[in-house]
Amino acid sequence: MLCFDINGVQEVEQWQSVDLRAVKKAARGTGVEATFSVWVNRVVIGSSPGIFTVTFAALRGTPDGAPEMWGKLPKQALAYDKQTLAADTDPETWQRLSASLAVPPDADFLLICIAAKSREPAGRAGLISHFADSASLEIRIPPAPSVAGGIPRTTK
Ligand SMILES: [Ca+2]
To answer: How far does the centroid of ligand 1 lie from the alpha carbon of residue 88, in Å?
Structure first.
């Protein structure tokens, strides 16, 4: 589980990069579909809204250049999606937040950012109120083209 300590800073981000080399090899030069999803929840403090954002991008190059690229998104990304969710006020329920991309064959890695944003009062040190859990990334590779328009040829 990710715990976002947004006390005093109002927004916290967690990052993950995913190398696509193995995917590119398996996809044989075609694009793939990718969906990232995560479950989010919060404990309400005061009247502040709890906002979660997932930013999902496909990029060229290497992840060590990601911080510089991030400032230029979405212009720099080959594919880009950003989804936001206002968390409900029930700490017993989790809500699913997801983002999807059509990843072109020349993308080298995926960059994922989960951000939690609130306006909590300062001076509540040690009180963690925003959480993310059960993150998953699904990459769907289309089937290889067949020789007979989708139906494998049979021999007589
Ligand atoms: Ca909830």
So the answer is: 5
